[in-house]
Amino acid sequence: MSAQEVIAQLKSFATPERKKINEYFFKTGKGQYSQFDQFIGVRTPQIRLISKQHRSIAFNEIDQLINSALHEVRFCGLIILINQYQAGNTKIVFDYYLQNLHAVNNWDLVDYSAPHIVGDYIFHHQDKLGLLFDLSHSENLWHKRIAIVATFFFIKQSEFNPTFTIGKTLLNDKHDLIHKAVGWMFREIYKKNNKACKVFLRENYAQLPRTTLRYAIERMNQSERLRYLKGEF
Fold first, then answer.
1. Where are the domains of the chain?
2. Is the whole-model pTM more than 0.85?
3. Of 4, 100, 118, 164, which is least surrounded by CB within 10 A?
């Protein structure tokens, strides 16, 4: 199995119509966050299917995938890493992922991989929790998103403190993709423990970006949502 075989398979599924959709959806216009990303037009289910077929590919081949200029090729490489992590190759994959954070450079790449690799590993090795806090203070947009989205794994285990700590660090961030990610994680906490989420929202209301608040309160009933939007607790 080789990276070139994977890339050839991905290209066989590519369509001009999907390429156009992806370029619009991922904001590739001038000055937008994906301005320099390149898409060939492959759907996620097809990428996942191909990654499953090549789940045992060697790391030197994965290198070629995750260093590709093509978004879908990097995505496929990251899914292969998740497959290898879940097969038990945890430390090697975790270390490799950290050494190649440059490849995790769009929101879908972050959201799909960070909880399964970074979140899972650090949850089981909490002496490394400081790594998430370090990433949350990065100047790099995607590193910050990795920091908050990785805590999704903690939330699933009903452990909320890392999300609240990192989320508070990121409340003053200027980027909408961070506002959305933080709000998404708060919404996931709300689904597990709405009281804990409400306490955080009330205590930090003055700092909450509007987008973050709207994402966080999506599961509230309409009347309660309106109160939170107005700051009436």
1. 1-97
2. yes
3. 4
